[in-house]
Every structure is written in C-alpha cells, then in structure tokens.
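User: DNA topoisomerase (ATP-hydrolyzing). Structure?
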Amino acid sequence: MSNGSPPEDFDGPIGPFEGDEEQATGVRAIEDLDIRDEMRQSYLTYAMSVIVSRALPDARDGLKPAQRRILVAMNDLNLGPSSGRIKCAKISGDTSGNYHPHGEGVIYPTLVRLAQDWVMRETLIDKQGNFGSIAGLGPAAMRYTEARLSSAASEMLDDLGRQTVDFIPTYDQRNEEPVVLPARYPNLLVNGSQGIAVGMATSIPPHNLSEVAEAVKLVIDDPEASVEEIMAVLPGPDFPTGGVICGRYGILQGYRTGRSTLTLRAKVEFETEKNTEVIVVKEIPYLDTRDRIKSKLEELIKDDKIEGISRVVDYTDRRTPSWQVRLHIYLKRDADREIVLNQLYKYSPLQTTVSVILLALVGNRPQTLNVKQLLEEFIRHRETVIRRRTEFLLSEARKRKHTVEGLLIAQIDIDKIIQTIRQSPSRAEAKIRLQGIEMPAELVARALGERGFIMFVSEYGELPNYALSANQSEAIVSMQLGSLANLERENLQGEHSKLLDDISGYLHLLSDALHIRAEIRSEMNALQAKYTSARRTEISDEELTDVDRGELITEEPMVVTLSQRGYIKRTPLSMYQAQNRGGKGIKGAKADDEDPIEHLFVSSTHSWLLFFTNFGKVYWQKVYDLPLGNRTAKGRALVNLLNLGDKERVQDCIDVREFDDEHFLLMATRQGIVKKTVLSAYSRPMKGGIIAIKLDAEDQLIDVVKVAAGQDVILSTSTGMTIRFSEADARPMGRNTMGVKGISLSSGDAVVGMVVADETMTLLTVCENGYGKRTPFGLGDLDVAAEEEIPEVEGEMPAAASESPAAVEAAPEEEEASASASSGMRYRRQRRGGKGLRDIKTTERNGPVIGILAVQDGDDVLMMSNSGKIQRIRAADINVIGRNTQGVRVMRMDKEDLLVSIARIPAEVADDGGEEAEPVGPEAT
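Assistant: Predicted structure:
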C-alpha cells in the first residue's frame, strides 16, 4: 500500500511541500503566465512565420520560399534548359524531402503556376504535358507531367555555386539552402507576385522584361531619376493575358506610393458575320478564366441584365495562343454595339479592378516600396552578387595561377625535378623534397614571362631564389608524363596568360562601384537582346474612376426619331448632308404607312431624354442608351426601354443636359393649356416614371420647352394662329397640377407647337404640304392696355380679352400689304389666354401647320414626311417674310405624302456641306 511518498520512478510534480518546492521534489516549480501575453506572443510568432516564410516575396529575387526551393531542387537535379524533362512527382518529392517542410501535394500547384504562360510573364518552368489552361481547367496529376528549368530560371540560378548568396540550414538541418537566388534579372517586377499574409498583402503586377531592364539602366545612369522619368521607359504593367489598362493616373499613383488600383479591360474587336455584328473577345483580364467569363455572360443574358446579346460562342482552338481566347458575342439586329460593350464592361468580368500593392521583404521585414525603390533594391542585390562572384572568381583564378606557375617553373629544370622524385622513397617525401628545391629568380622570370613575373613578385616579394609551395609540389607530383610535351607546355603558358588577364579584369571590376554598375548595365543589354517579347497590354489615355457609360461614349450630335407606334432610334447627324431647298430628300427611315414618324429632333449622346406620355407622366433615358441605327432602320420599340403602362404611349420628349433651379419646363397641351414647373423637380428618375402634368380626359400634351426668367414663349395652332406672352404670366406650379390657359382656340383648332422667343432668331412655320416661312421675332410696340389680367387659378379656364376675329381675319388685300409693313414683321407680346395673331395662311396649297421652330441663319432644318423621307436644308435658304403670308416651298412632297415633323440642327453642329441652294423663285410670294 502507498505510504504517501511518490514512487521511485515518478518524474512529475507532486503536491506542495513545506520549504523549497524545487529542492523537495527535484522538479522546477510551476510558473503562472498571463494567457493574453502568451497568445499575443504566439500569434506574433505565427504571423512573422507566415510573412517571412510563406506569403511575401523577397524584394531581391521576387520569389517566395516555396518557389525558390522548387528551383533549387530542380537545379540539384541538373534540370537545365538543355537537359531532358523528368516527372513533376520527382521534382515535388525532392523539394519536399530536401527543402520544403510540406508535402508534395502543396508544392505541385506552385510548380504548375511557374509554368503557366498566362500567369507568368516569363515562365520559370519549361513544361510538358497538361498544366491546365486559361479556360480554367486544372492540370493533370504530377505523375503525368514533366518539367525542367526554363531559360529565365537559369538566369535566376546563374552563379549560385560561386558564393554569391548566403546559405542557411534546411528545416531538417541536413542540407543548406540559399536565402535568396542571385537573380540576374528583376523577377519581382517582371513576373509580379500575389500573396496574403497576416494583416498585409502584396499585389505586384507583371511587367515587360525589356522595359524593366531599360528602367534599371535608367536608374543606374541617373540615380536621381524621378518616377515620372521612369514611367517614360516603364509605362506600366504588362500582363501575360494582355488587355487594356484604362488611364495612367492609377499607374503613376502605384509607382509613386506603392499602392493604387488599375482598371483592366478585356481587349475586343468588332466583326460582322452574315450581317450580324459580333463582339470578339481576344484577351481577358489577368488571373481570370475563359470559362468563368463565358458562364457569367450567359448568366447576364439569361437574367436580362444586358440586352442586345443573342448568344455567346467560344471559338478558342489550338491555333489560338495559350494566353489568348476567342469568345464571340453575337448581337441582336437592333442592338447598339457600343452600348452593349459598355454594359459588358460594367456588369461582367470583362472589366476588373487590379490592386497594386508593392509590398515585399527587405531584410526580412515587409515594406511598401515605390517602383524606384524596387529597382534600387534589385540593383543593390546585383551589386552584392557581382562583387561576391568576382571575389570568388578572383580567388579561384589566383589558386589556379599559383598551380600553373609551379608547373611552368618545374618545366624549366624538369630533369632535376624528375630526379628528385625518383630518389624519394615515397610520394609524401617527394613533395617535401620538391619544396626544398630553390629556383633562381632568372629561371622563374623565364618560366613566367615578363608580365607573369611582375605579378609574381608583387605577390611574393623580390627574392634571389624562390621555392615551390606545398600545393605546387602536389600538382607536380600528380603531373603526368604527357604534360612534358611541347604542346602541353604551350597550353600551360596560354592558360597562365588568360589567368593573368582574368585576374586583372576582376581587380579592375572590384576597384570601383561604378564598374560593377556598368556590369549590371551590360547584363540588362544582354537580357534585352535575348528576351524580345513585345508588350501585350495596351495602356489607354481614358481615365476611369468608376464605370460611367457616359464617359465611355464620345459626345456627338444625334438625330432621334420616334414613330407613331413607338419605335425609336438614334442616327449620327453626320449621316445627313445639307440639300437644296425644295429637294426630294433622302431616305431617312423605313416607309410604313401604318407607322409614320411622329417626333424628330437633334440631341447629344450625353443628354437626358424626358419622355412625356399621354397619361401626363415623364420617363428618363440617356441618348446613348437608345438603339443606334442607320437612316433606313426601323428602330426599337420604346416599350423595351421604358416601363410604360397599359395603353400608355409617348407624346413628346425633350433633351436636358443638367437639372437646375434656374430653368423651368413649360408644357403646352392640345387644348391650349400651359403649365410651368421648375426643372429640378424632374431630376429624380423612377423606373415607373413620375407625374408631369394633370390632364383633362380629352386633352393631350403637345410640346415642352425649357425657359428661364424674362423669356417669352410663342404658341402656334394648326390654323396658323400664334400668341406671344411672357413666361412670367404662368406662375410656377408643382408637377402634379393642371396648369392655366395659354391661348383661346377657335372651334376645330388645336395647338401644334411652342417655342421660346429669341430676338436674334426667326420663327420657322411649316405646313403639312411642304410649305413654310421664316418671320422675325421682333417685339414691336407693346399693346396690352386693353387686355384684361387673366387669373392664374389652377384648373380654371377664363375667357380672355383679345383681338377680335375681325381684326385677325384681315382681308386678302390687307394681308399682302402687311407682308412688307414693319408691324407685319413682328410678333407683339400679349397677355396669356388671348386668341393671338395670324402667323401663316393655312390655304389649300399649304395645308394645316404641323410645327414651328426658332432658327437662325447658320442653322439647318431636318424635315420628315409621313412616308419616312428626311430632308436637311439650310435655314438661310428659307426667305424671311412677314406674318400672315403663305410662305415658300421647303420640301417637295410626293403624291399623298405629308410632312409630319421638323427639327432644328443648331449652327454649332450644322454641316456646311452640300450644294448651293437654288434661288427662292416665285414661290416666295
């Protein structure tokens, strides 16, 4: 039974004893530790292990430990660029067994990555077999693939055996491994690096080797070179998969500070296959895969996130370079390729953001460097390598020179040497006796030559006699009899001379740091001559802070047409050339008796379009989002662009560049109602639209204009009546209101248009039979004394005092007389709500008025007929005549064809091309 004492073989702590516990038990006392301190210290140890030994590259050779160990293991196996390849399983096993404290299962993926030319700008592994593909397919098992070092890897390992770098014990203390590779070329910038450590990450993009070498030479030649000067020769990253970098600002920021982001896009081309437009993706963003991109595109098409794409087909084959792809994105017939492409950039992986984090280990400490500091770290590393290599070669050359000198000296008196060896009882004794032979200085000088003897004396001093050293005696004893031949003596003399040259060269190289830098420069020249791969990544001048399609599309004037059945399109204004007044016009839209063109106007690609509907609602759309079509294209149904309700259709639309509080939207209805609302009230678009104006059941919106304080507006009716009043006569109202009366209409009359009066311009009035005229906006004498104030009560339509019908419907003789009178050339201001003045005669020849425009001489006018014909003429070709006249022919109409709409092309965008206009002729009456 136990007596309370510990057993004899007990080797652990026991309960407390009186007195000293350690003395009583023979074991150390238990020490209490704060678990927080212990966890903190343990975590820091783990973090530093990850940072230094796993995740981050060294700034000198640009390699992580696993990558470096793979190359060293392959070098041990003599797997140079000219040797045969061996199984990757053997390489992984040797790396794991000799250098890397992890299984070959984690080493093989690293080896594979070093061989993929769509990942590495200059591959370090020369592969054979299935090493995966840019499609995203994985590599074959390591037992099926083979590899050897690439030419670039041999540059990394060159001079490794010449004591150029330090070595440390391996994880099992059995071997040694290099701390860093000699790295003849700047691998960190050329191949880049990706890694996530604890609390930090590195993301260094690849670059073109020739450009990096040029940057190294620049820093060598001018140590004070700025980042901007470096960018002149190293413009930016050069990804293995090509692509397009948008803008240079992100590159400059990354090179300056070590941190930035770049926008990288796929490189595409436009092709046409069987009348179908195709977007061909040839290069994809770095580190993405072809199959993932294709899958994402199909997903976006399925979810209707991107409209205008019919299908995506992968045509990549064996003829396609391994770092490229060939994805064909087929567009629908009415799709605008620019819009679709920009949507692809926004929603798909065809555009991505690449982080630039120039973080690397400098002296086993992680540091964020700028591009110049990275180049300087490489130059310092190469200086150290070249110096150590030269010192090693100098030492070896001196050792060999010493041996050759002994052989040359021995051959001067070879008979004595042979006799001494033959008389010696043993090899060891022979070596000792040879060291006792003294050679006169004259014989040594004759054996070594003048230059060799001078160097010999500089090393050993000037003496009358010289003895052989132990090493020289060993070489003589080991010398074969064949070495006594004259040819062998000449070879020794030649070798001695070469050794003298080499030693002089080594000493010269070590004499000045500038000589070492010149050697680095020569190495860069050799690399540029050997590796001539052209730049793959394009750098555009297009700066992008965010994906804004407005910034991606060049601003240009567009002709926007909207048919009665709601088909819309935009066409570049440049497709329409100015023609003579009265011409037949060119085909502008597909003729369709059942769907005539209802609206036509000129806008900019960057403007907003406000669509006003028969329900009194307004919708938004960017002009560049409209389908782009040629003159004869039908366009696209507007219901596919706007979220219109049942039986809701667009009545009018205007373009707005900026929503502000200084301008108003003044709306006019068919029944003569007007309403003014501040423009900023329409600045918040909603998918389902918002209320623009309240309408009576039988009324509809006709026109909308932008007005500012102090401006006048003119309303025109189908019977040729006009009224001019100040915008101030219509007080501002909210969006959800009805408005007030703008003009009193006769029976059967209706408002057809509204413009803002501008004294520097003229009013163009056009009738449906192709006749029209221009009349100045001249204000004339104000005559408002007899007119009563019109109350502006919402929804109330009071009858306003105005000119009597008799005064308006003047006799024909009075009409012709007024054409030349100054009063007939003016539109005098009236009170809102009157019947107005006669503007143009709506005779049987003219037909009713279809629209009005405010134009100046430099403007062009676009006119569209019911059959879809468009004609563009100069506004100056239309005579300026008075009110109450019939006008001149502005477009020759086919039988049963009628004008339906007109649009102004401002002078600043009007095309001056075209033929000279014909004289006005008798039609001016």
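The CA atoms of residues 445 and 453 lie 5 Å apart. The chain has four domains: 63-182, 267-349, 377-522, 554-913.
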